[in-house]
Give the backbone structure.
Amino acid sequence: MTAPLTAPNRASAPPSGASAVDTVLLANSIRALAMDAVQAANSGHPGMPMGMAEIAVALWHRHLRHNPGNPHWPDRDRFVLSNGHGSMLQYALLHLTGYALPLDELKRFRQLHSMTPGHPEVGVTPGVETTTGPLGQGLANAVGMALAERLLASEFNRPGHAIVDHRTYCFAGDGCLMEGISHEACSLAGTLALGKLIVFYDDNGISIDGKTKGWFTDDTPMRFAAYGWNVVPNVDGHDVEALDAAIRAAYGVTDRPTLIDCKTVIGKGSPNKAGTKQAHGEALGKDEVALTRRALGWPYPPFEIPQEIYDAWDARERGAAFEGDWQRRFASYKAACPELAAEFERRMSGKLPVDFGARAAALVQQQLAKAESVATRKASQQALEAFAPALPELIGGAADLTGSVLTNWSGSKTVTAKEAGNYIYFGVREFGMNAIANGLTLHGGFIPYVGTFLTFSDYGRNAVRLAALMKIRVIFVYTHDSIGLGEDGPTHQPIEHAAALRLIPKMELWRPCDTVESAVAWARAIERADGPTCLLFTRQNVPFQKRDEAQVAAIRRGGYILGDWNEGAARRAVIIATGSEVGLAMGAREALAGEGVGVRVVSMPCTSVFDHQDEAYRRSVLPEGVPRVAVEAGVTDYWRKYVGLDGAVIGIDRFGESAPAATVFKFFGFTVEHVVAAVKSCL
Ligand SMILES: Cc1ncc(C[n+]2csc(CCOP(=O)(O)OP(=O)(O)O)c2C)c(N)n1
């Protein structure tokens, strides 16, 4: 069962002490729990867990270094179920190996507030490393995790002290590999030579619509070989020994990621549904469950697992030993390199350096003093230049637009196959980039920020959504944030994007108007540990806005009074503006003051943060009974909740135009005269 090791490093060694109960029983215990839980819920996907049961036995019973008693131990192997519809496989494994996931929770599979939601969700079930279900993204998360491991190892390990030394394992199905994101992420994983990433392909020839040969005829092994992966082809996915050998073979290849192509039968064990699309996503049915029990020789009633099978699966002791070994090694590392060890602990905890707040305040003061009128993308780069030297956890990148989105800074060092760094050239792969960034955060030790044009946020949007759902700190930098990008025209001019991103629950989107708001937005994004942030920046220059200290402090409230009316003003209105339109609003305020109309300008760089302020503050900024006009170079609907039906919105409800920025702005009515007229129409 335990062949000699092929690779020298610690993570290559299989765990010792795994109990030798018949692997058939181990696999069938997964099958039984999966089919019974799906049957009880009358909802779910029994086919994948039943088809991947032996793969799960080979990996989880023999190789995975995890500790059910401490799912957060830093040097654990990472396991990602990219084909997350097979969630019962993961729940069965977590339960059987001894995580705090009681049998009752399996009985409540897919029920309200259970620990066993329809698809695995990080933060809900102990041992789940990432939220999966949207196919292909887990695979990209796994690439991010493997990259995180490699970068942390190179940063923190010292001769004789391999404190970061673990593998990333991923299960993926046809669906994951059909998704384009698998190409983006796996191609880059090959280029970056992520040798500790091992992917098990559940090659069962079935997806929801039936036999995949009607729509998926790629030669997957050749495809991955072409990416530069090590491929173990044609492995019998129901032969634990063959799988074990394939895993060992993967350990021997340290300079390339490995794909193990496992030939499996979906729903294996079910006499009438195995190998069919019916096994994919429906309960087998009472009768078929009974027939499957008989065919498997599994005499136990639903949700009953014999003690000796529990005992054989139980990984608690082994897991505690793995972690204990690491803790001892970490203690000796700490003795040898106390500062590095403290820094490693800080990084893995996600805490910022204690002086971060002071740094952020200093940048704001600097920008106030410089009073520069530059593009906010430039202001963003200045923020990076100020923060990144003191934040080694910041890891950046862009989807082949570095020179435009300005996500690099003077200390950027390129990550390559051979060298560690803090900047990733993702290539033109927006979705892969975002999901890899999610993986970097989920692994721990990093705060990723990734950039592209705002209009291409759609390409990677579902990963942005998942970052919000997972409540993880990832910073999405979007520049060229309006028609103000000019000549590239309507394909590149975002219209609905800011509003659409704001609609994602838990999202914080900042659209700063100048260097000072940009500094505050970056600081807030870095400090926000429990969710992602979108930072929107202009291509074109924007005017610096003067503020007093109270106004500077109020930026953090998401919306604040930038320019107020005179106390005595008789005719009053509020203009709410964001980003490049704030300057316009200030111009209109001045013009209207000359006509005896008192106008307050509210700069609202982050609507959701403003919405979370207490009512008294919100009312003090947006008083009742005063007409409101919103100005933003994007769809108008979003602003109705602020201006009401009687207010006005100056925005754009069609696609843009190709022309120089000034011409396009004028064409769409982003002029002082038009804003003045809109205000007057509301008085
Ligand atoms: C992005 C995305 N699109 C569609 C789905 C719906 N869906 C869930 S499973 C599945 C088919 C997956 O096929 P495969 O990976 O072969 O799974 P198996 O049938 O082997 O369980 C689809 C289309 C999804 N979860 N994610």
